[in-house]
Amino acid sequence: MTNKELADLIFPNITKTIFDYEKMYPERNLKEGAKVVRFAPSPTGFMHIGNMMSAVINYCLAKASGGVFFLRNEDTDQARSVDGAVDFIYHILNYYQISPDEYEKQGKIVGNYGPYIQSERIEIYHTFIKYLIEIGRAYPCFLTPEELEEIREEQAKRKKRIGIYGRYAKYRYTSNEELAKKIQNGEKYVIRFRSEGDFNRKFVFEDLTQGKIEFPENDIDVPIMKSENLLPTYHFAHVVDDHLMRTTHVVRGNEWMSSIPLHYELFKAFGYKMPKYIHTSLILKKDEENGTIRKISKRKDPEALMFYYEEKGYPVPAVIDAVLTIANSNYEEWRTNNPETPFYEFPFSPKKMSTSGALFDLDKLDNISKNYISKMSAGDLYQEYLNWALKYNKDIASLLEKYKEETILFLNIEREIKKPRKDYENYSSIFPKSWYMYDEEWPEEPNYELMKITDKEEIINIMEEYLNNYYNSSASQDEWFNQIKTLAEKMGYASDMKEYKENPLNYKGNVADFTTVMRVVLTTKNMTPNLYDIMKILGKDRMLKRLEIFKEKYLN
RNA sequence: GGCCAGUUGGUGAAGUGGCUUAACACACUGCCCUUUCACGGCAGCAUUCACGAGUUCGAAUCUCGUACUGGUCACCA
User: Fold this and answer.
1) Is the dihedral of CA A193, A198, A199, A205 positive or negative?
2) pLDDT for the residue numbered A297
3) What value, to the nearest 5°, has the Cα angle with vertex A500 and ends A494 and A502?
4) Are residues A252 and A386 located together in one domain of the fold?
5) At a CB cut-off of 8 Å and minimum separation 6, what does A340 contact?
6) CA-closest candidate to residue A533, choices A431, A437, A409, A420
7) A286 compared with A304, residue with greater pLDDT
8) Burial of A419 (0-12, 13-18, 19+ CB in 10 A)
9) Which whole number is the average pLDDT over A245-265?
10) What pLDDT does A356 receive?
């Protein structure tokens, strides 16, 4: 029985050849140096920060070179697929504006190299597997899970390499007749690649990030088609898809590095040129419990999943900047020199990628984000803040809508100047620092963060005196502060800090203690933006009301 | 256990044989400025690049060995 006959027996309905597909998906007509890249997640989990990094790098590579960025859905593991994972990928790509040029969504294919969903490419894979069987580079294998387990145990016990190779690859030596008979008997099988490699021979592979690496050749007869759903394994699909889709650069996690010998041989078996590879470092995390460094975990680290950043309300460009800062060591410098340039114009260099894993630093993200938010106009910030609240906190959203003008005034304090305040790292952190501006948010019994002056009678005295006899809503900031200093002096508080420092015992306190009292009565907090502006927004009546609240708490 | 890679401060890192008594950014600490906070300014934070040996006039940078860390060894991607 010939290989051809065996191949026909296994794939009777496959009539096309690999050469037909070669013609269907010709070389892309792109300008010199244009990169064809892909984001190829598998919907077995929700998109995480590592996926994000890969997507962003791909996008940069494609945009900067005038190439193509396509999305391929690697859904060959249908048992583990998670509901909503695909939708979430589209949501995130859209949210961060890293949309693919080619993709397939709800039955609609955009691009000439689809389908872009692997489960819809089964005929293509079968054609390529059939070809491999015909040329003697693949065969059906009937090893049962129990037999495989036995082999593994034996290999472990004898300290041999694990895997189906050499004499362990039982069915590579079985005659086609016998194989055919088993198939006709309905026995379950997978299709294995017939390796011709020699583990003792080495070859050199060049990764764009890591440089030249020497590997032993692959000699393992790896499964290329599964028995249950007849779908290809990742390795096989990678070779077929990235060849047919004419991918020039594969960006993938470092965990794939060790599959290179296999991929190398698979491409060689078809006579195809391998794409270039950029193996990205893993994103790590310091474990809070035992202090060890480990791979970031979707289960233990909320920030691993892309939900996190959206829920917290980190601005889109801040997250992208943070990701690129980890991905490429010279990104930060570039960003400093090109503050307004879109991220995808960054000339990403695989060589500048770290080869060891990096800890994802939320402090760094916060810093990038604070800077970013500080540069937004009050109006823009209000809009983003509202958009976030509409989705994640309806109560805040309705407050923001009701008090739009006032909120913008508040957000504008010490903003839209050369050195703006940097106190919000994300939209969810605004409300805890501004709730006191909304009358209805005041609790029955406020928790006043009093500092040096704690005598309630004295505090009430200061407030009444100030509000009734000094406050003037049309005063400039200087006039305002002079009035406060005058009153402070009159009540026994030093208005001049230097003088106070020299003779502290001559005074009850200083003007800073004095203003802190006002700040706390009006906002409950001892840390707020500029008090002058806050008073202006509140106005005299509301300030008097807040004094009443204070009195109520302490005088009854 | 096999194969592959990595190891520069709390974090991300620059650095590819002399310009390094190791950039920059974040974090942290102190001081100054100051109505609080923030901003800003100044200063501090690795006498040393996992360890050992070698090459060299000279090594974080090259070689070898050791240790440790990570990845991988599925009909998962």
Assistant:
1) negative
2) 66
3) 155
4) no
5) none
6) A409
7) A304
8) exposed
9) 95
10) 67
- What is the structure's pLDDT at A295? 66
In which element (H, E) is residue A522 found?
helix A511-523
Instruction: Tell whether A305 is covered by a domain.
Output: no
- Check residues 38 to 97 of chain A and report those whose beta carbon is under 7 Å from nucleic acid strand B: 40-42, 44, 74, 76-77, 80
**CATH number of the domain that A534 lies in?**
1.10.10.350
Closest CA to A487 of A504, A505, A503, A463: A463
For A306-355, how does the pLDDT look when each residue is reduced to its tens digit (9 = 90+)?
A: 999 999 999 999 999 999 988 887 888 888 888 888 999 998 888 888 77
A407 CB less than 7 Å from any atom of strand B:
no
Does A538 lie in the same domain as A389?
A: no
Residue A129 and residue A138 in contact, taking contact as beta carbons nearer than 8 Å: yes
If pLDDT is split at 50, 70 and 90, which confidence band does A294 have?
low
Cross-strand pairs, A112? none
Quote the number of domains for chain A: 3
Full residue range of the structural domain in which residue A465 is found: 456-555
Instruction: Give the whole-angstrom CA distance, residue A163 versus residue A109.
Output: 39
A361 contact to strand B (CB, 7 A limit): yes
Find which nucleotide's C1' atom is closest to A528's CA: B37
Of all helices (H) and strands (E), which one includes residue A234?
Answer: helix A234-244
Distance CA A545, CA A550 (A): 9
In whole angstroms, what is the distance from residue A12 CA to residue A204 CA?
A: 39
Q: Please indicate, yes or no, whether residues A245 and A166 belong to a single structural domain of this protein.
A: yes
Instruction: Indicate if A142 and A261 belong to the same structural domain.
Output: yes
| pLDDT of residue A298 exceeding 80 | no
Domain boundary among A388, A412, A441: A441
A435 within some domain = yes
Is position A429 within any domain?
Answer: yes
Domain boundary among A241, A258, A280: A280
Tens of pLDDT, residues A97-156: 999 999 999 889 999 998 999 999 999 999 999 999 999 999 999 999 999 999 999 998
Q: Is the pLDDT of residue A286 over 80?
A: no
The predicted model scores a pTM of 0.90
Q: Is the CB of A259 under 7 A from strand B?
A: yes
Residues A479 and A437 in one domain: no
DSSP labels for A309-341? Answer: HHHHT--HHHHHHHHHHHH-TTHHHHHHH-TTS
Q: Are residues A146 and A264 in the same domain?
A: yes
pLDDT at A143: 94
User: What local confidence, expressed as pLDDT, does residue A416 receive?
Assistant: 87
**A403 and A480 together in one domain:** no
Task: Find the CATH number of the domain harbouring A235.
Answer: 3.40.50.620
Q: What residue has token string 């960006």?
A: A251
Using a 7 Å cut-off to protein CB atoms, list the covered nucleotides of chain B. Answer: 1-8, 10-16, 24-27, 34-40, 69-77
* One domain, residues A432 and A460: no
| Cα gap A186→A74, rounded to integer Å | 29
Residue A367 lies in a domain: no
